[in-house]
Amino acid sequence: MRLRHLKSSSVVVEEGDTRVLCDPWLVDGAFYGSWAHYPPLSFEPEDYADVDYIYVSHIHPDHCHPETLQRLDTDTPVIVHDYQWDFLADNLRRWGFDVIELPHDERMHLGDDLHLNVLASDDCDPEVCGKYFGCGWFMDDVTGGTDGSTQIDSMGVFDDGEHVLVNANDCRWPMTAAASQRVLDRYGEVDMLLMQYGAANFYPQCMLDYTHEERLEAAEEVAVEMCQDAESFVQVFEPDYYMPFAGSYTLAGPLSDLNEYVGVMRRADAKEYFEGSENVPEDSTCILLNSEEAFDLETGTQSAPYTPVDPERKRAYVDQELADRSFDYHDDEMPTLEDMQELLPVAYDHMEEKRRGIGFESDTTVLLDLVEDTTAALSLHGDGIEYLSSDEAAEVDEYVRMRIDPRLLQRILQGPAHAHYNNAQIGSHVHFAKEPDVYERPVYYCMNYFHA
After folding, report:
1. Which of 426, 430, 432 has its CA nearest to residue 170?
2. Bridge pairing between strands 53-55 and 78-81
3. When you count CB atoms within 10 A of the terminal residue's CB, does the N or C end of the chain come out lower?
4. Cα(333)–Cα(269) distance, rounded to whole angstroms?
5. In whole angstroms, how far apart are CA 29 and each of 37, 66, 141, 345?
6. What does the pLDDT read at residue 449?
7. Cis status of the peptide bond prior to 174, with omega within 30 of 0
8. Which stretch of DSSP H or E encloses residue 53?
C-alpha cells in the first residue's frame, strides 16, 4: 500500500492498480475564497480524475470542495459515512456523483487487496457528541431511539490484508476515543496514521479586541494545544509511521494580514514537536511528504525528501499573489437594513429551535453588526431580537460580538444554499469580541442554524 500526499488533507491511497482520492481540495478558494494553498499546486484536479473511488470524510470545503469536485469525473463513486443526516450525500448527488453511504464500521472491498472501513468520529453514539458540545440532548431527541452519528467527521481505515492506514483527518480527541479503540480491537497494529495538527477556526486571528501581542501569544497556545490533541491519537494507535497533515492553509484576499495569527505550526515545526514529545512512542516515526510524493508502507520509504516551507518566500507569495484576490460575495450589492430585517426573525426562530432542542441557554447576548449603525441583539433565553445603535450595543455587559461583511451575512441569512455560518467562521470571515473572554461552544453551534 502507498500513500500519496497532494495537499492539506487531500491524499491518494494506492494498492496495486486501485486508487482512492481522499478529501479533494485541489484549487484555491475554499471557505468563500479565503483559504489558499502554499506552496501553490503544480498540478490540476483533472490529473486525478481517473481514480477508482473518492472518499469524503465530511462536508467542510477543505475536504469536500465543490469547485474541485466539479473538475473530477462524476462516474467515480464517492464513499461517505452513513450519517444520521444526509446533507453530505445529498450535496454530492446534486453535483452528479453516485454516492455509497457506508454503514458504521463496515469493511468494504475496493479492488485488488484494498479495503475501506469508515467510522463516525462519535462512534455513532449521540451522547458522546452531546457531552463534547456541552449540550443536554438525549439519544431519543436526536435519533428517535436509534443509534446514529450526530457529528460530521469520520475516520477512514484502509487495509490490504497486511498493512493498515488510519486517516483520522479532522477527528478530534477525546470525542474519537471510542472509535479509535474500536479500530484497534478490530485491526490490532496500525502501520500509518494521518491526523489533524492545525486549528481550522477563527481563533485567535479574528479577535477584534485582542492586541497584536495577545493574538500572537494565543496563536502559539492554540498551535501547541492542537499538537497535544494529535499526540493522543499517536499515543493510542502507536503506529509505525504517522503524518500530521490536515489543517494547513493560507488566508488570501483582505484576510491575508491575519496569517501571522493563525494557530497552525509549520509542518516541519510540528514534526520537531512530535519527535520531542514524551507522549509519542519512540518507535513511531513522523514523516512529511512534498506535494505528489509518496510513502510505501511495505518498504517504509518515501519517494523524495521533504522540503520545509521557506517563511520569507511564503510571505512574498502572500503579498504579491494572495493579498490582491477578492471574494465572490464582494460582487454582491450591499444589503439594506430592511433587506436584513426581513430575514432575521425567521433566522432567529431556526436558531431558537436548535437552542431549545439542546437544552442550552445563556446570559450572553449575541451582538450581530448589520448596516446603518444598527446591531441585532440576539437573546439566548428565547427573548427574541432587539435592534440597537452602536452606542446602545456598547452598554451590553455580557456579549459575543460578531462582525461579518454585510454581503456575506446576507447570503448566510438567505440559507445554506447561499452560504453557511460555520463555513464563514472557519474561513475567518467572522470577527469577534467577547465579554467575558470565555468560549461558550454551544453559542457557535446554535449560530450554525441562524438562517432563513
Report:
1. 426
2. parallel
3. C
4. 43
5. 9, 10, 37, 31
6. 97
7. yes
8. strand 53-55
Q: What is the dihedral of CA 95, 98, 103, 109, to 10 degrees?
A: -130
Residues paired with 385 in a beta bridge:
378
Task: Say how far apart CA 56 and CA 73 lie, in whole Å.
Answer: 15
Determine the 3-state secondary structure of 39 from DSSP. coil
The number of beta carbons lying within 10 Å of the beta carbon of residue 256 is 20
Taking the C-alpha atoms of residue 159 and residue 175, their distance in angstroms, rounded to an integer, is 23
3-state secondary structure of 46: helix
What's the gap between Cα 15 and its chain centre?
A: 27
Please give the backbone phi and psi of residue 195, each rounded to the nearest 5 degrees, phi first: -145, 155
437 near 208, Cβ under 8 Å?
no
Is residue 22 within 8 Å of residue 78, measured between CB atoms?
no
User: 295 with 289: CB under 8 angstroms?
Assistant: yes
To which residue does cell 444554499 refer?
417
Query: Measuring CA to CA, which residue among 396, 395, 358 is closest to residue 378?
Result: 396
Q: Compute, in degrees rounded to 10, the torsion defined by CA atoms 193, 53, 18, 114.
A: 50
Strands lying side by side in the sheet with 192-196: 108-111, 114-120, 154-159, 164-167, 192-196, 241-246, 285-286
CA distance readout (Å), 449 to 96, 219, 390, 442: 26, 28, 25, 11
* Three-state secondary-structure class, residue 32: coil
SS3 390: helix
**Rounded Cα–Cα distance for residues 423 and 201 (Å):** 9
Cβ burial of 161 (10 Å; 0-12, 13-18, 19+) is: exposed
DSSP type of residue 207? B
Structure-block grid coordinates of residue 142: 436526536
Spatial distance between the Cα atoms of 305 and 84, rounded to a whole number of angstroms:
42
User: Alpha-carbon distance 153 to 173, whole Å?
Assistant: 12
- HEC secondary structure over 234-289: HHHHCCCEEEEEECCCEECHHHHHHHHHCCCCCHHHHHHHHHCCCCCCCCCEECCC
| The Cα angle at residue 31 between residues 29 and 37, in degrees rounded to 5 | 40
Is the whole-model pTM more than 0.85? Answer: yes
Whole-number average pLDDT of the chain: 94
pLDDT score, position 150: 53
pLDDT range class, residue 125, cuts 50, 70, 90: confident
